[in-house]
Each structure stands twice: as structure tokens, then as C-alpha cells.
Design brief:
The complex is a heterodimer of chains A (137) and B (403). Chain A is α+β, with helices and mostly antiparallel strands. In chain A, 40% of the residues lie in helices and 19% in strands. The longest helix of chain B is centred in the middle third of the chain and has 36 residues, at 245-280. Classes of the chains: A alpha+beta (137), B alpha/beta (403).
């Protein structure tokens, strides 16, 4: 199975790899997946007082598509409001990276990670957690 | 040095140019049907087949009449298991095999179960070898066949073949082995080893694809298998179908080269493999899978904890290797062989198989070491699990959301 050029690009030059201070109230952290399944994503956002995402970082244990999906997600998150970020759909990632059907779960995981990070931030800042449509998988 | 470097010789081997040279005349000038007994075209083809049969027999210490040519090891495994089950059904219906066998053996056994056979699947110890006491305990009066592989395709461990054969024979059953990974790589002698049936194939020993053989013992005891393909009664009635003359000639040449060069090659490759393994296990949290004392000389299966195998292979873009990671298959299940050693799923996902071969050079191995180290370090920089491990977080205590 050949990877798309965009997957290879994100894999070879991953954007926004790193760690934000998860104890900060401005930071939301989403950790999704499981080592047994071969994918774990950690996605973090830093949010300002206007609920705009000013920074995003990731680390991913997984295949090339999983790494590319999370790298792409961090690019998309920066500059978005947390409400707009909530609207990112896994199929947007599938389309952008031209993921084949067997790799769709990687994009689902990225979407889950985004939502988990936003909810972590919301709860930390006294907002209620938003309902996440569960289980694409 | 040409890139990418081929280090997947347990999947298939490149054909030796000398094998190709031997085969070529049999595609055109010597195109005859080896079964045409009454003209020169047939005789020329038959002569090629006879010589090949002799070479194959010599490599494994057999008589040439004991070699049945097939389309490959999968067919040989099927013919041996299904053929013995049918032939000896009056004697019993029980077969013993083990969980780390190739799918060709496991699925042939599953088929036999549907036909009323009973199959015991022995587990393996954490080093990949079967427990001989467990085998002995599993033997019953109904046991007609024990099918245990010679060398494992994923981790390279060599089963205690002679001991298995002795236990099998003590209980009056036949011993069959899938020796696809072993024949041509290490000395295999059907008499010294006590083998009654043995499957192997051309393309794992620098010969062509699409041709293999089943060794079927003729004396002490005389073994018979029921043919699984009806037709002209070729190969002593056990495998009908016009002989694949060029393929068989290629298999014969490959066997001849292996017999003459195997010892030197094994020495060279095990040295290279040991170097690769030693250099790569310098990396923190890397583990060799399977027994390292009883192992094929050319393979090393290594898990690099906290990185995922497929992602890792992508970073090793100039190396052709293989991974036990689920991501390489549609099933999402990691290698059943590695799991049966008791490896956790995450370690199985993190495994890479390096398979060296006749054409692997020192320079290539050095390159592979460097690229693998770089890739592992790169992937660990990206890995949240590595970061957590480094912070001293116990990953087993985290409640992961299984998906």
C-alpha cells in the first residue's frame, strides 16, 4: 500500500511535535487510543481568553497515517475558536490526506483527540463538557 | 550500494542468477513434457527433472524417489496433512500441531477438523519452542500425525526436531515438518532427523516461485498420502499435473547451490545478523523475540518498545523489512506468532523482522543499523508513550480507551 504524498510529507516533517504544560488552565489535553491497538495520540491545545486556540502540539504512537492525521490536526487547530475546532470532522482529514479505507480509523482517532483536548480545556475552565458523538469504531 | 536494501529474505529470496541460467533452456529449446516417454523432447525434459530430483534429494539426505514436486510449500503442507488424514483414517483421526505454524498448516488442520478430525494445537514457551512434555502428553492412540515446523518464519526459532520425531514415533504416529525456512539454510537430514514428510519451496532458497516439494518417506515406514488433485497420476500418483519443468530445474539448481554453499553462507550471515542484533539492542527498551540459541542464522526479530512497527518501517524507507504490527494487515490484530510467545500486543505491534540473505553485504547491514537507529529515535521523539515511560509513568496503570 502506497502512502499519499501528503501523508509522507506530514510523516517526514511532522508539524507541531511537542508537549504543552498539561497542568496549565490554558491547556487542554486529549489522550486517545491504546498501545494494544497500535495507536495512541496525545493532542494538546493552548487557548486564550477569547477561547481562540493559539498553539497546538501532538505526539503519536502509531503508523504513518496516524502521525500524519495528528500533525494535520494541529495545523488546522491553530487560530480556530474552540467552537469551530469542535466541528472538525474525521472525513475532512481522510480527504485532505487521501487515506485509504483501512486507515480511516487514524482520522477518527485524530477527531477524538481534538474533542478530548477541547473538553479537557472546557472542564478546567468551568464550562460543561460537550457531548461527543461516540464510536465511529 | 543500491537502495532500497532487501532484508525480507524470510518472505522470499531473490533468485540466484545461476538458477535462472539453468532454467532458461527449459522455456524454449527443451520445452518438452517430461511425461512424453517416446520422443527426444520428452526425454530432454525428463532428464532435467531427474537431475533436479537428485539434487533436491541430496540436499535433505533423501532418496530421489521420495521427492514429490508441487507448486510450493502451501500445496505441500496441504497434501501432507489432508493426504495423511485421508490415507490413515482407519488408524486414527488425531493430529497434533502448534499455534505458531504457518497458516498453510493451521488452515489445513482446520479443514481436517471439519471432516471429523481432531486437532491439538500445542502452545509454545516464551522462547517460541514447544514443550516436549506437552507433546508427549497430547499423544493418544488415535494420533496419526504430528506436524511441527522446522524453523519459524517470523522469529526464526528452530524446534527440537529430533526429539519431536522420537516422541512421535514412540507412539506410532508420523512426523511431518514444514521446513520452508530451514531447507537450504541449515543442514536438514530426513533420516538423522526422523522426518516422515517434509514441505519446502524454491523461492525461499534462491530458486523460483511456484515450485516446491513434499518429501514422503518410502522406507521405515513406507508413508503414503492420498492425492488431493485428480489427474494423470504424476509423482507416484500423489500429485497429478504436468510437471513444471523449468521451475523444477530451478529448484534443483537452487538445492545444489545450497548444498555446496550453505555452510559458508550460514557462517557469514549469522555473523552479520549477530552484529545487526547487537547494535540494535544497544537502543534502550529493545528486545529480541524468540530463542537465540536455537535459531536460523539469517533472521532477527526485534521489538522496539514505544514505537509502532508500521510507522517505524515508514521511517526505514530504504530498508525492505517486515513487521508484526497489525497495521500491515487489514485485521488490526498483531502477529499471532508473537502473541503466542506471551508478548503483549504493544510489543508485538513494535516488532521488526530482519531477514538477511545470500546477497546481503556488510555495507548493507551497516547502513541498515544506522537507518534503523535513526528511525527508532525519530519515532520515539514523536511517541507519547516514550515520553511517559521517560517520566516514569507506568503505562499498564493507565486506563486506555480501547478502540
Amino acid at each position: 500500500m502506497a502512502y499519499s504524498e501528503k501523508v509522507i510529507d506530514h510523516y517526514t516533517h511532522p508539524r507541531n511535535v511537542g508537549t504543552l504544560d498539561k497542568s496549565s488552565t490554558k491547556v487542554g489535553t486529549g489522550l486517545v487510543g491504546a498501545p494494544e491497538c497500535g495507536d495512541v495520540m496525545r493532542l494538546q491545545i493552548e487557548v486564550d481568553e477569547n477561547h481562540m486556540i493559539t498553539d497546538a502540539k501532538f505526539k503519536t504512537f502509531g503508523c504513518g497515517s496516524a502521525i500524519a492525521s495528528s500533525s494535520l490536526a494541529t495545523e488546522w487547530l491553530k487560530g480556530k475558536s474552540i467552537d469551530d475546532a469542535m466541528k472538525i470532522d474525521n472525513m475532512d482529514i481522510v480527504e485532505e490526506l487521501a487515506l485509504p479505507p483501512v486507515k480511516i480509523h487514524c482520522s477518527v482517532l485524530a477527531e477524538d483527540a481534538i474533542k478530548a483536548a477541547i473538553n479537557d480545556y472546557r472542564v478546567k475552565n468551568g464550562l460543561e463538557a460537550l457531548e461527543v458523538a461516540k464510536s465511529h469504531h | 550500494m543500491d537502495l532500497p536494501i532487501y532484508l525480507d529474505n524470510n518472505a522470499t529470496t531473490p533468485m540466484d542468477p545461476r538458477v535462472l541460467d539453468a532454467m532458461l533452456p527449459y522455456f524454449n529449446a527443451k520445452f518438452g513434457n517430461a511425461a512424453s516417454r517416446n520422443h527426444a523432447f520428452g526425454w530432454a525434459a525428463e532428464e532435467g527433472v531427474d537431475y533436479a530430483r537428485e539434487q533436491v534429494a541430496k540436499l535433505i539426505g533423501a532418496n530421489e524417489k521420495e521427492i514429490i514436486f508441487t507448486s510450493g510449500a502451501t500445496e505441500s503442507d496441504n497434501l501432507a496433512i489432508k493426504g495423511v488424514f485421508e490415507m490413515y483414517k482407519d488408524k486414527g483421526n488425531h493430529i497434533i500441531t502448534c499455534v505458531t505454524e504457518h497458516k498453510a498448516v493451521l488452515d489445513a488442520c482446520k479443514h481436517v477438523e471439519k471432516l471429523g478430525g481432531e486437532v491439538t494445537y500445542l502452545g509454545v514457551k516464551s522462547d517460541g519452542l514447544i514443550d516436549l512434555a506437552e507433546l508427549e502428553a497430547a499423544m493418544t492412540e488415535k494420533t496419526i500425525l504430528v506436524a511441527i515446523m522446522y524453523g519459524n518464519n517470523e522469529i526464526g526459532v528452530i524446534q527440537p526436531i529430533r526429539e519431536i520425531a522420537a516422541i512421535t514415533h514412540k507412539h506410532g504416529a508420523l512426523f511431518m515438518t514444514d521446513a520452508t525456512q530451514a531447507v537450504g539454510k541449515i543442514p536438514v537430514d530426513v533420516n538423522a532427523d526422523g522426518i516422515d514428510l517434509m514441505a519446502f519451496t524454491g523461492h525461499k532458497m534462491y530458486g523460483p516461485k511456484g515450485v516446491g516439494a513434499l518429501y514422503v518417506r518410502r522406507k521405515n515406514p513406507r508413508v503414503k498420502v492420498t492425492a488431493q488433485m485428480d489427474g494423470g497420476g504424476h509423482e507416484r500418483g500423489m500429485r497429478s499435473g504436468t510437471l513444471n519443468v523449468p521451475g523444477i530445474v530451478g529448484l534443483g539448481k537452487a538445492a545444489e547451490l545450497c548444498r555446496l554453499e550453505m555452510d559458508e553462507e550460514a557462517k557469514r550471515l549469522s555473523k552479520l545478523r549477530d552484529k545487526l542484533q547487537a547494535e540494535l539492542t544497544v537502543l534502550e527498551e529493545s528486545y529480541v523475540n524468540g530463542n537465540t540459541d536455537h535459531r536460523l542464522p539469517h533472521v532477527a526479530n526485534i521489538s522496539f518498545k514505544y514505537v509502532e512497527g508500521e510507522g517505524l518501517m515508514m521511517a526505514m524507507k530504504d530498508l525492505a523489512v517486515s513487521s508484526g504490527s497489525a497495521c500491515t494487515s487489514a485485521s488490526l490484530e498483531p502477529s499471532y506468532v508473537l502473541k503466542s510467545l506471551g508478548l503483549s500486543d504493544d510489543l508485538a505491534h513494535s516488532s521488526i523482522r530482519f531477514g538477511l540473505g545470500r546477497f546481503t553485504t556488510d555495507e548493507e547491514v551497516d547502513f541498515a543499523i544506522e537507518q534503523t537507529k535513526k528511525a527508532v529515535n525519530h519515532l520515539r521523539d514523536l511517541s507519547p508513550l516514550w515520553e511517559m515511560f521517560k517520566e516514569g509513568i507506568d503505562l499498564d496503570k493507565i486506563e486506555w480507551a480501547e478502540h
